[in-house]
Write a structure and sequence with these properties.
The structure is a single chain. The chain is α+β, with helices and mostly antiparallel strands. 27% of the residues lie in helices and 32% in strands. It is built from nine helices and ten strands. The strands form three sheets. The protein has a six-stranded antiparallel sheet. A two-stranded antiparallel ribbon has the order 1-2. The chain has a two-stranded antiparallel sheet with strand order 3-10. Helix 3 packs across helix 5 and helix 4 crosses helix 5. The longest helix has 15 residues. The protein is globular, with a radius of gyration of 19 Å. The two termini are 26 Å apart.
Length: 254
């Protein structure tokens, strides 16, 4: 019987994830497997030599990948026992979260709220954007950054990235990224979202009106079309003393 990792690390699927460094592509693949529930909290990682064999990469690449996921808190090393998935509740490890299809995870737009755009333009994609959105190194990415205000107080800083072939003119986007994508028939049907508590430093703290370092909530979301294509990559930072945010979910019957 084939090991479960053989299905997760199919070389043809792994190598088709953009054109960035191999260890970053492998990291994103394993990260999605953890956050989506294909790999569960407490699952043991197979030996590095087997990971390298399944993925078709060197053990040096695997070691670099594992180290980055340990640093991110998704894997943990236990002396004498091995490496294990460390998926806490904030990592969306609950089965209820894994069965949910995210509709909108942006800060709720209320009568006393507003948005201030900080950046809307086309850029060369970063390594993370290339790998997450499956882009080529020569493609362009629409990057949209905005501040969400509530009662004239900054609540959250949101950075969204979408392939330029989906949003060729970012200056035309004047609503939430999901509303805009639905308006052009590119609305996502599911998403993987990770929440972590972290220290907010410059320049994000300054935009949020905080004295760094300050406690906050970091939200990283990747949204997908029904075809499986990653359509949106958003990273948000919420101030720890704000009035919160609302996510709306639709739940599958499975």
């Amino acid at each position: 019987m084939a090991h479960p990792f053989a299905g997760i690390l199919l070389p043809e699927g792994f190598r088709s994830r953009g054109t960035g460094p191999l260890y970053l592509r492998l990291r994103q693949l394993l990260k999605e497997a953890i956050l989506s529930g294909k790999l569960n909290h407490g699952d043991a990682l197979i030996p590095e030599r087997d990971l390298a064999s399944y993925a078709g990469v060197s053990r040096v690449t695997v070691r670099k990948t594992v180290e980055s996921l340990v640093d991110e808190g998704l894997l943990v090393r236990r002396r004498g026992a091995g490496t294990f998935v460390e998926c806490t509740p904030l990592n969306v490890g609950d089965p209820l979260c894994r069965s949910a299809q995210l509709v909108d995870a942006s800060p709720r737009q209320r009568a006393n709220s507003r948005v201030q755009w900080l950046e809307r333009g086309l850029f060369q994609p970063t390594s993370d954007e290339i790998i997450t959105l499956g882009l080529s190194a020569h493609s362009r990415v629409a990057r949209l950054t905005c501040l969400h205000f509530s009662n004239d107080e900054p609540l959250a800083l949101e950075r969204s990235s979408v392939s330029a072939d989906v949003i060729p003119d970012p200056l035309r986007v004047n609503s939430s990224i999901h509303d805009w994508l639905r308006g052009i028939n590119a609305g996502p049907v599911r998403a993987i979202q990770r929440l972590t508590v972290r220290s907010i430093k410059k320049p994000d703290a300054c935009w949020l009106g905080l004295v760094p370092p300050a406690a906050g909530l970091s939200v990283e979301r990747v949204s997908y079309l029904s075809s499986g294509r990653a359509i949106e990559f958003t990273r948000s930072v919420f101030r720890g003393d704000g009035d919160g945010f609302v996510s709306e979910f639709e739940f599958s019957e499975s």
